[in-house]
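task queued by scheduler; priority normal; single chain, no ligands, no partner chains; default sampling; output format set to structure tokens
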Amino acid sequence: MIAIGSDHGGYKLKEEIKRYLEEKDIESKDYGCYEGEVTDYPDIAEKVAESIQSKKCEKGILICRSGVGMDIVANKFKSIRCANCDTEEKAKFSRAHNDSNVLALGADYLSVNEAICILRIWLGTEFEGGRHQERVDLIKEIEDKNMK
């Protein structure tokens, strides 16, 4: 299950991504915003991050105008590794090397096609483990020390 959320600036792209996920038979849960709403991105990022922490969802997708705000908020949550990706290569390495579990996208900087290509790579890339697991473990140690 993939959690998906956007603020009003990312709403249109979110709807296109939901359509793509449905076409691929990938189950998703929409945490907002909804048509016509004006929302604060921290509220949506919080809902998506909490859905992953509670294991209701395995991964998440967050969309705002730049992707930056959503990325910042999501990474305030323990066990969340959100990556703001604007290229397929960043998406690939965020999964392969960092085991990212949330993808942030900037609606003002990506076409629907670019965003879907990035998402496709992100979803299709497995974490490589090995030396990268050691680094993810270091991230967890830092979280444990600083996120009480």
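post-processing summary
- The beta strands are 2-6, 28-30, 59-64, 82-84, 102-106.
- The radius of gyration is 14 Å.
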